[in-house]
Description:
The chain has helices at residues 2-6, 12-22, 33-37, 39-51, 91-98, 119-139, 160-173, 184-198, 213-226, 230-233, 238-244, 251-270, 283-303; strands at 27-31, 59-61, 102-106, 142-146, 180-182.
Amino acid sequence: MLAASLLAGASQDSTAHRKLLVQADRIVFLGDSITYNGGYVANFEVWLKSLYSRRNIDVVNLGLPLETVSGSSEIGHAGGKFSRSNLFTRLDSVLSKSKPSLIFACYGMNFGIYQPIDPARFSAYKQGIEKLKAKAEAFGATIIFITPASFAPHGMTSPYAESLDAYSNWLVSRRDDGWMVIDIHSHMQDALDKSRKEDPRFTYQKDRIHPNSEGHWVMTQPILKWFGDTPSSEASSALEVINLHKLPAGIELLIKTRMRLKRDAWLTHTGHSHPSMKDGLPLNKAQIEEKKLNKEINRLVKIAGH
């Protein structure tokens, strides 16, 4: 099979990592607005379908804009209307209702509230991440941490990029304690630096924070490499991964549509404290629509001969 040949050179570690995928009953992504946007989550799902074309591996995006795991929030945030969300106000509900066996958690961008590194905020970030790991594992889930995206100061002097470097470096250091950590931060910064040698104004983030679709693909690459699929990780887009695995291009849009449908329904079902989020469909109705999308995705896969 093509998938097997593409993964033939995978390391022992990445082979063990892939077992987490095939053994997972449900995979949940947690994070802030970057995860909520879901570009890299949908890319990951496209890759999953490319690799395991005959399976419908259940992935749920439960990222929530503005969320932290520390409760950090600046004075006057959102004009004083509300503070940044705290994951721990909803985590018990997320775990009990979604029942994930595998969790990806990508936090960091919101923790330093765009200020220089601060020992108290940094300590709160560490404690929040450790608490998340403990609660996930006590529930019986395996958790994989993803370092935060890079920050793009656009030529301005900004110490916040250094804050995110510190958060990322600390997470990576926890590998020595047996933590599973995928470093997208360094990869994204390296890719940005390389592109800026040709065009000093190049950016993935017009607002300095939220990656565009190209930036979300760059975020996806280290995840695919962590799972041992180097050819896919070196592709230039999710569409190229689809082509590499000889699947129809139409599945990309269907998977993105499915991701958004499930995201909104599950966020409503599990509950949250964000005051301006629109409700998703009731979960039972969303699952009916999900089945229709799965049927169409599988139809296209079958036509392609998988």
